[in-house]
Amino acid sequence: MPMKSKLSTFFSSSFFTVSVFTSASTVIKLITSFLSAKVIALYAGPAGLGMLGQLSSFIAVSLTLSTGAINNGIIKYLAEYKGDETKQYQLLHAALKLTAIGSFLASIASIVFSGWWSFWLFGHTEYAFVFVVLGSTLFCHSAYTLFSSVLNGLSEYKKFNQLAVVASITGLITTYLFIRTYGITGGLLSLALYQVFVFVAVFLFYKSLGKIEWRKIWKTQTTPSHYKKLLAFSMMALVTSVITPLLQIVIRTILKSEAGVYDVGYYEGAIRISQLYLLVITTTLSVYYLPKLSAIQNDTHLRKEILNGYALILPATALILLCVFVCRTWIIDIAFSDKFQPMTSYFLPQLIGDFFKIASWLLAFIMIARAKTYLYILTELVYGVILLLFVYVCVEQLGAVGAVYAYAIAYISYFVMMLVVFRQLIFAKA
Fold first, then answer.
1. d(CA 35, CA 41)
2. What percent of the chain has pLDDT over 70?
3. Higher-confidence position of 318 and 312
4. Exposed e or buried b for every residue in 296-324, given b needs 16+ CB within 10 A?
5. What's the rounded Cα separation, in Å, for the pair 115 and 128?
């Protein structure tokens, strides 16, 4: 096929269309995340950044539990049931009930054990009130997350990304106002409270999606099968969305004990930069690939889609990572401050790990799309064990930067696991 024809096909593809919408919102999220990190660096320094990282990981776990971790299930089955309103409404009825139960339980846990959470994360109970505030507002984020998942599952990419933009800008404004006024305490409160303001955005978009009748959904009678399907995805999401932040909390605790609070801040800074430059790729994968792979039932078509993904995404990922490595010193100065220059040594292993992370995810999404629950859980647990083992070994041998080398080793291992699991699909003869 001539190059001109290939380019024409690419620019007219649905992947390109989704990428444009996603990239636009992600650029805004990049800017707001960048500015938020800058504000934190200026007003809180490396030690404060480490504290905010600990709370961010805890909130990630809490929010996952509050939504029942069924977001990917909503996306998959809404796409799969396209054109069948009855099945879609039965699914959403089950999703509403599971979200309500999850929000209530997570809120109670955050409030009742607020003193213990503060001591576990920060070594004292001074910030127990932050967890009380968080527990009181979790339902707001649950509603936002549920609505976002519905937009994604219905392929309403434009509205999905508009809502994401509102959330990003709201988060930036909240972080700036709170941390500038109240310092590190304000920064912690901003993480717990910003979801309340985001919740308002849900109402702004509520009537924009006329095809969904929420009152009718609530009155729709569902079946046990829909709960079972969503809970299967819940198990998969809980493993990633709960274990991953918990691993980060443990790693920061190890670094604080073995190296010090400033090294925790450097490690957190490396993670935040990584999240920034991978946003476009990971968001496009979540928004485009999961619904796309969910709709494919034929292995030949699935293999073609995955190989096309590798051909498009891995070269782009490699180029981005190379640019980041070359500009690493400049990026640290712009994103944080000169206090964070010791982070320079963290970049190479972080970038290697990120490359294999994307390479792995292209295959791991098959497990989500095909609802291979137990296989997904097993591979995630193995990854977590490998990461922690190498963190202990590498930090002891290399210091704080060893945590990032452990990350790279763990994702290389995970990629090998994915190749073994899907070898018959990937290496099958065309």
1. 10
2. 84
3. 318
4. beeeeebbebbeebeebbeeebeebbeeb
5. 5
Instruction: Please tell me the predicted confidence (pLDDT) of residue 383.
Output: 92
Question: Structure tokens of 25?
Answer: 């919102």
Reading the block at residue 174, the tokens are 């909240």
| Statement: residue 319 has pLDDT above 80 | yes
Q: Which residues contact 235 (CB under 8 A, 6 or more apart)?
A: 69, 373, 377
Domain boundaries, given as residue ranges, for the chain = 11-426
Residue 190: C-alpha distances to residues 47, 294, 342 (Å): 17, 36, 28
Residue labelled with tokens 């930090």? 395
pTM score > 0.85 for this model?
no
Instruction: Kindly state the tokens that stand for 413.
Output: 């291992």
